[in-house]
Amino acid sequence: MIRNIYRKRKVLIVDDESINREILGNMLNSEYEVVYAENGKQALEKLSEDKDFSLMLLDLRMPVMGGLQVLSKCRSDSELSKLPIIVLTQEKDAEVESIRAGADDFIKKPYDMPEVILARCERIIELYEKSTLIDLTQVDPLTGLYASEFFFEYIRQYEQYNDKEMDAVVLDIEHFHLINEIHGRDEGDRILKKVAEILEQKSKESFGIACRSSADTFYIYISGMEDYGMLADSIIKAMGELSLSPAKIRLRIGVNKKADRSVSPEQRFDYAKLACDGLRRDYTRQVAFYDKDLHDRQIYETQLIHDMDGSIKSRDFEVYFQPKYGIQGEKPQLTSAEALIRWRHPKLGMISPGDFIPLFEGNGLVQKLDRFVWEEAARYVGIWKKKFGFSVPVSVNVSRIDIYDPDLEDTLAKLLEKNDLKSSELYLEITESAYSDNAVRLIEVVKSLRNKGFRIEMDDFGSGYSSLNMLTAIPIDVLKMDMKFVQNMLKDEKSLKLCELVLDISRFLDVPVVAEGVEDEAQYEKLKEMGCQIIQGYYFSKPLPADEFENLIRKELY
Ligand code: C2E
Ligand code: CA
Ligand code: CA
């Protein structure tokens, strides 16, 4: 327990003679809040009611319960053992006895000058407080900032006597381990110290306080900070003055602004941390504020993450199939399908992949989900092949993270074997953004998969990242034009031009284009006229459950 710095300390005077209580009380009440007890029993009652005493002045000879008994009870109690006790005594030999029983000092009756008594009380209190404070402060040896235990205790105490609105702020240095690995630990330490120094100074300006909560995460309790972006900038600038180039460091700051005091300080910082963690997937911002929406979103996401495994087991995930039609012949012809996942959540109902795929991409769980989809897709292609005597190839989505999986090819090979399929019957859609990630690795993987006979479709082409260079370096088999071109092609000239450009590129590369998101006849006719070969979209069909898709194949036959 840290004593509060904003009010008088409390002292308990225990003496059975009222005149003694009064004399002593008068000496102390200018500096302390004085509470009285008439005997040992009463003293113990007061101490158990109120844990906030800074000192007890204890007479030895009293009726009901004497001082020695109180002393021994206090010293064997875990909390009271930390209460300083001064014994009030007349007899010389009682001193030895009370020292043995655990007294910290004596004051002899009749009492000395008030200043002397006050000084002795003060000294003993200070001694005790310092020793317990050292326990708690355990400052972080590297940065000199407080450890979190002291930090939270400080906040609690501060708020008992101060109702200023304070922000709970979490600051995180991104990829700090990389800084350590690349530039060495000394450099890493220098950076941490610099950050700590700035935060300490900033928080002090508002009676705030800062602490280092883990290696590269800082907590700041602060008020009146208007622009956290500027705080981040000033830290990055200061780091630029160290040897590292400032562009290499990114900070994330999560702010729980004027944090609600009805929740514990720990919880308030947890919320700020949520806002901070949310920035992991957002490279456009370095500051995020905690609010109700974020809170709900985080709870929702946590639930999805928690439920994924169980939902795979209980088959709440289901694979749908959306047909792709070749349109350059006389009449549109079913050529293949895309496998798309659906989640029928037992409590939340139907959840769109747009809600959980980006989330699971962020934490790697998507890999497990993809495996499930691939398995299901391969299983159905196998079933239909047996049933109809020909195969309708199905394309599956391959996430960025799958590309780094050393077992990728092995997994796919096993799937083919298990379902008696050829690699030409399972297409792989890789989204365009994966192409900019790690080009070398990607080229290697794509080449190898193609050598094994897989057909590679570049998904969402045109959505942003890939350069034409990339396209000539990576062998692909199909371009899937980003849906937004199709959806806007008849609304604005630029989109139409871009559609034409994609088709030009495809001719240059000598690969077909799949146009996604085709919803109406006009789009369909236009694309056909422009020479687009394959179409996928609501115009033909929404993604369908396996049995309905099976009916569609059957219809196609007759
Ligand atoms: P995507 O791979 O670009 O898939 C096409 C999306 O467009 C699908 O959305 C599909 O239902 C939708 N769509 C198809 N035709 C139309 C149309 O005419 N109009 C409109 N407005 N939309 C159309 P869905 O199924 O919601 O999936 C969204 C995204 O989630 C997919 O985009 C893909 O990136 C991801 N996804 C879906 N299933 C999987 C999966 O099994 N694995 C991975 N890694 N990602 C998946
Ligand atoms: Ca796709
Ligand atoms: Ca797509």
- Helical residue percent band: 40-55%
Which value, in Å, is the CA radius of gyration?
Answer: 36 Å
Mean pLDDT: 89
Poorly predicted residue ranges = 1-5
Distance between the termini: 83 Å
CATH class of the largest domain: Alpha Beta
CATH architectural group of the largest domain: Alpha-Beta Barrel
Strand content: 15-25%
For the largest sheet, list the strands in their spatial order. Answer: 11-12-14-15-16-17-18-19
Bound molecule types: ligand C2E, calcium ion
Count of alpha and pi helical runs = 22
Largest sheet: 8 strands, mixed, barrel
> Which class best fits the helix and strand makeup?
alpha/beta
Stated plainly, the CATH topology of the largest domain is called TIM Barrel
Q: What does the overall shape look like?
A: elongated
The total domain count is 3
Number of strands: 20
Keywords:
558 residues, alpha/beta, Alpha-Beta Plaits, TIM Barrel, 3 domains, 22 helices, 20% strand, elongated, disordered N terminus, binds ligand C2E
Can you walk through the features of this model?
This protein is of the alpha/beta class. The chain has 3 domains: 2-134, Response regulator (Rossmann fold, 3-Layer(aba) Sandwich), CATH 3.40.50.2300; 148-290, Alpha-Beta Plaits; 299-553, TIM Barrel. 49% of the residues lie in helices and 20% in strands. The protein has 22 helices and 20 strands. The strands form 3 sheets. Strands 11-12-14-15-16-17-18-19 form an 8-stranded mixed β-barrel, surrounded by 4 helices. It has a 5-stranded parallel beta sheet with strand order 2-1-3-4-5, sandwiched between helices. Strands 7-8-6-9-10 form a 5-stranded mixed beta sheet, sandwiched between helices. The protein is elongated, with a radius of gyration of 36 Å. The termini are far apart. Bound molecules: ligand C2E and calcium ion (2 copies).
